[in-house]
Amino acid sequence: MPYVVLVTGASSGFGALTARALADAGHTVYAGMRQTTGRNAPAVADAQAYADQHGVALRAVELDVSGQESVDAAVAQVTAEAGRIDVVVHNAGHMVLGPTESFTPEQIAEIYDTNVLSTQRVNRAVLPQMRGRRDGLLLWVGSSSTYGGTPPYLGPYFGAKAAMDHLAKSYAVELSRFGIDTAIVVPGSFTSGTNHFAHAMHPEDTATAEAYDAFYAGLMDDVGKALAALAPADADVMEVARAIVRIVDTPKGERPFRITIDPADDGSERVSDVADGVRADFYERIGMSDLLTPRTAD
């Protein structure tokens, strides 16, 4: 069944790959990106060229997840053009690189805004129509750092992605009786094929960052090299997009709650299996196990 899908942060990386893969699978895809007539105009042109070349329904839409007005306008535009939004892929995110202490509180707030609060803006805009239809899918793109290895100098990003993961888990049970499904896709540390590291935020407090160099000189480069060395030579960032397509194409009630795609195997999948099992056991113990799967009929 073809769906109408809105992908946030789709100008590059996982978002752009996912938008194309979903369009290839026959879905109508809106690739949300900010500054569509400015910095991201080339990404808009690339998306249109891909749609024309492959004969798929892939369209860019102006969507700045940091502002509710922009989010509301994008959801309204997609709904007016396509009639509804069936699937939201929460992909927008921002990486950081540097000693945690050297990021100002304002910078950490910005990271949480992009990686966590943005999902709340989008949800508040799109969930009323999903609740009204008693149908829909929220698909959250997480991070293996939430349950796996956490190398240094990425702290604010890890904290934000973990917060998003917990938000997704809460939404899952609170939306299940509305027939709205939830899935979490957990990519590992793909060091190529995305722009996460290239576009990472660096600390504004450079004096504090430099103080760390006395004991941690070259650490950021070492972390990048170590992560790259863990990944097998055939690691393919497209596996993340393919996993998302598989989840979207799976019938409601049969979708996996979480899928991990981590060629480097930082331990995330093993720990998340335990954590998700504890979660399921807890809901069983309190007599609310029905909340773990979306209601498929009234």
From TrEMBL:
InterPro entries: NAD(P)-bd_dom_sf, SDR_fam, SDR_oxidoreductase. Gene3D superfamilies: NAD(P)-binding Rossmann-like Domain (3.40.50.720). It comes from the Bacteria. GO terms for molecular function: oxidoreductase activity. Its EC number is 1.1.-.-. The keyword Oxidoreductase applies. It is an enzyme of class 1 (oxidoreductase). Keywords: Oxidoreductase. This is SDR family oxidoreductase. It comes from Streptomyces sp. R11.
